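Thread: Newbie trying to understand structure tokens

Hi all, I'm a second-year student working on a class project, and my supervisor (Dr. K.) asked me to get a predicted structure for one chain before our next meeting. I've only ever worked with sequences, so writing a 3D structure as a token string is new to me. If someone could post the tokens and maybe explain what I'm looking at, I'd be very grateful. Here's the chain:
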Amino acid sequence: MATKTIQELITEFPLDTPEDILSKYQGQVAYKSKLMSSSVMRMTLSDPAVDLYDWFLGADVTGLRLVLKDEMATGGDFNFMIDHPLYLGGLFNTLRAQYSTDATITVQLDALKFACDDYCNEEISPYENATLAEVKKVFYPAVKELCVQPVTQGNEKYAVSASSKDLFTFVTVLTDNCTGIDVSIRWREDGTQPWKVFSSPIRLQGGYSGESLSQVIARPKGIKDARHFEFSFKGQYAGQVSTVNVTVSQ
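---
Reply by user tm_fold:
Sure, no problem. This is what the structure looks like when written as tokens:
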């Protein structure tokens, strides 16, 4: 059973969150396969649940039963690895069809096939210990951290930085004689797309002249392709309202 990479799961389920992708990734099952030796086959045929030793190895066997008997006589191995192109499970299906009128034999052949498949294919969970950090590395492509120089308007100074790696946008506002700042954020995938609302206006309350205000804003779930952000700062100082827009791109 072929498993899928994190990127393949993200492509297949584009609306999933990183947590959803992690759950699917961890839940995948694979098989650790091995061949069955002739000695193990003999023991399996002798198992009371199968009880086909004489049916396969008796003196008068013919057809596919004789093929299996001859293979055991030469000490050959049997391939019941279900993902392998030479998987022998079809041999039992053919025998079952040939002896379909014998209810006892068909039940025994089913038990033999189950025992061979179970021995040759150990079910494992190769990604059960995967972490959310591993998924987020792929879910949010590594891009350079955004930084712009402070923008000055009047007595106001605005500095913006955003980090997609940490999945947060950091907004820092340096104020002078400002009682508060309202920050609105919009985003879009590229320069040709319309702007989308990132969040409701966020109030940064000032306390005294020259105070530095900051806010950490989490990216909304599902916005993994945002490359352009517009920050609108509306500051209230000296009885006036001042607005400045800062646009940054990844």
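A couple of things are worth pointing out once you decode it. The two ends are 39 Å apart (CA to CA). Residues 103-120 form the longest helix (18 residues). Feel free to ask follow-ups in this thread.
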